[in-house]
């Protein structure tokens, strides 16, 4: 799954969960059945998982271009110094 596919999956997940929550609430309210409301919402969660979790082809429309092994050897990763990982600042405690 590429970066745009992850964004698409996240947006689709949010829309489907909100839609299933609204449908579940309306079904439960109209029929005055709390168990039906939970079942409708659980069905929406399962449907959402089936749509967004697998790596479907429409989530991979913009694949990343990776370097070949020969190119990777010619362009090594920059080394990060120890001071740069800590932000270059020391934490000082307050002594009273």
Please give a structural write-up.
Pfam families: SPC12. By secondary structure, this protein is mainly alpha-helical. The chain has four helices and no strands. It is elongated, with a radius of gyration of 24 Å. The mean pLDDT is 84.
Q: Distance N terminus to C terminus?
A: 53 Å
Tell how many strands the DSSP assignment holds. Answer: 0
Which outline best applies?
elongated
Structural class: mainly alpha
Fraction of residues in β-strands: under 5%
Give me a quick take on this structure.
It is found in: Endoplasmic reticulum membrane. The protein has helices spanning 3-31, 34-52, 69-74, 82-85.
Lay out the secondary structure.
Layout: H1 3-31, H2 34-52, H3 69-74, H4 82-85
Keywords: Endoplasmic reticulum, Membrane, Transmembrane, Transmembrane helix
Region (Disordered): 70-96
Family: Belongs to the SPCS1 family.
Features:
4 helices; 0% strand; elongated
């Amino acid at each position: 799954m590429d970066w745009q596919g992850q964004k698409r999956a996240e947006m689709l997940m949010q829309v489907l969960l909100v839609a299933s929550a609204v449908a579940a609430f309306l079904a439960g309210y109209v029929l005055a059945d709390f168990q039906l409301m939970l079942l409708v919402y659980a069905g929406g969660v399962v449907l959402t998982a089936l749509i967004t979790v697998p790596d479907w082809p429409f989530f991979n429309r913009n694949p990343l271009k990776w370097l070949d092994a020969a190119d990777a050897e010619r362009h090594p990763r920059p080394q990060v110094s120890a001071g740069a990982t800590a932000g270059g600042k020391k934490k000082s405690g307050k002594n009273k």
